[in-house]
């Protein structure tokens, strides 16, 4: 199943409840790579930027009932 950046309606494969996912946002490999590139190019003051930009962060989807991990946006 494809997950986006917004909560989605799903049937949880673990608890079989019909509901919306809850989302947790966190850094992923892409975030760290952008920060590394900024370091390589000497833009030290911009290194924290990827960690503040929503588009560089991963959105992990969890069941709102049983809190099981369902997937991540791509």
TrEMBL record:
Transmembrane segments: 33-53
InterPro entries: LITAF, LITAF_fam
Annotated compartments: Endosome membrane; Late endosome membrane; Lysosome membrane
GO molecular function, one term: zinc ion binding
Domain LITAF as annotated: residue spans: 1-74
Protein name (Swiss-Prot/TrEMBL): LITAF domain-containing protein
UniProt xrefs under SMART domains: LITAF
UniProt entry keywords in alphabetical sequence: Membrane, Metal-binding, Transmembrane, Transmembrane helix, Zinc
Top-rank taxon, per record: Eukaryota
UniProt membrane topology term: Peripheral membrane protein
One GO term describing the cellular component: late endosome membrane
Organism: Frieseomelitta varia
Family to which this protein belongs: Belongs to the CDIP1/LITAF family.
Main location: membrane
């Amino acid at each position: 199943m494809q997950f986006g950046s917004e909560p989605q309606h799903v049937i949880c494969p673990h608890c079989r409840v019909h509901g919306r996912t809850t989302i947790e946002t966190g850094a992923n490999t892409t975030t760290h790579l952008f920060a590394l590139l900024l370091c390589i190019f000497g833009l030290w003051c911009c290194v924290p930027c990827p960690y503040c930009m929503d588009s560089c962060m991963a959105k992990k989807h969890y069941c709102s009932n049983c809190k099981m991990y369902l997937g991540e946006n791509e």
